[in-house]
Every structure is written in C-alpha cells, then in structure tokens.
Amino acid sequence: MSRIGKKPVTIPAGVNVAIAGNQISVEGPLGKLAWSFSPRLSVQHEREAGFVRVENTHEERQMRALHGLTRAMIQNMVRGVSQGYEKRLEVVGVGYLAAVQGRTLQLRVGFSNEIQKPIPDGLTVTCPDQTHVVVKGADKQQVGQFAAEVRRVRKPEPYKGKGVRYEGEVVRRKAGKTVVK
C-alpha cells in the first residue's frame, strides 16, 4: 500500500468535489479542474467529514503506484482551485526584458527578433517590472509547463549568467579563458 495514497485529502470550505464514474472534478474560487483516474481505483467523497479518500484493492505494482499518484493529483487540484500555483521568473542580461501585450508574453533576450509566447487559457501572466515574469494559475502542471517553456527560450548560460531563470535559481558559473604565457 502507498503511504501517500492512504492519507485522506482534506477539502477546504468553498471547494466542491464531484465524482462521476472515474472522473473527478473540483471547483473552487480560482477555477474548475477535472481529471480521469484509473477505473480500478475507488475514490469516495465523504462530505460530512470534509475529505476525499482513495482506496486500492489490487496489489499489483502499477496499481500501488497509481494509488499514490491519484491521491497526489486530487490534492494538487484541491490546492490549485483554493490557493492557486505561482512560478516567478527573472530575466537577467543587459537589454533583456519581458512585457505582456494582451494574451502574449513578449521577450527580448538577445535575439535579433522579439520572442512572442501566447499565454494559454487558465493562466495569468504578469510582469511587475521589465525583468520579472509571474505565472499564476489553478493547474499545477500547466503553470510549470508554461514557466519551463519561457525559460527554454534562453536558458541561463554559465559564463555571464545571462538568460531566463526561476527566481532564486542558482546558476553555476564557470571561469572564462585564461591567458597562457
């Protein structure tokens, strides 16, 4: 049995959970999320107690793994619709900047052209200043995916540290060339 899968998921006030077959949908103040879990697992919503429990009756390796995964996905959905997820990025470099124009993130990161990244539905992207980007949303996977795609435009390079990085990310620096006499 999975240790994580055994824990019940606590449902905070203001969050509604609906289970139909092997589909779970969670709705809260920040949005609505739905996910399909394995039909071989059973998910019960105990409304009066205020939690969701995932149960596994199979002892196969794959089902034990899906037990913990299902519980973690439901927990992420509940947290996403109640609190939300956020990733912060920094744009480091002389002349490097970021701006939001409508539903498009514009990045100037040392290429001859400006990079245009369309912002997916369900995400909120803001630029508090020209060197920071904040990605917010209810879906943890979608927030992380978009932040990774923005970072991939220009990864931080090891010599000067220029590029797009996560806030607080440590970039390992290398020494430059040395002159040999």
Walk me through the structure.
This protein is of the alpha+beta class. It folds into two domains: 3-82, Ribosomal protein L6 (Outer Surface Protein A, domain 3, Alpha-Beta Complex), CATH 3.90.930.12; 85-166, Ribosomal protein L6 (Outer Surface Protein A, domain 3, Alpha-Beta Complex). Helix content is 22%, strand content 36%. The chain is built from three helices and 13 strands, in the order H-E-E-E-E-E-E-H-E-E-E-E-E-E-H-E. The strands form four sheets. Strands 11-12-7-13 form a four-stranded antiparallel β-sheet, covered by helices on one side. A three-stranded antiparallel β-sheet has the order 1-6-5. It has a three-stranded antiparallel β-sheet with strand order 2-3-4, covered by helices on one side. Strand 9 and strand 10 (115-118) form a beta hairpin. The termini are far apart. The mean pLDDT is 93.
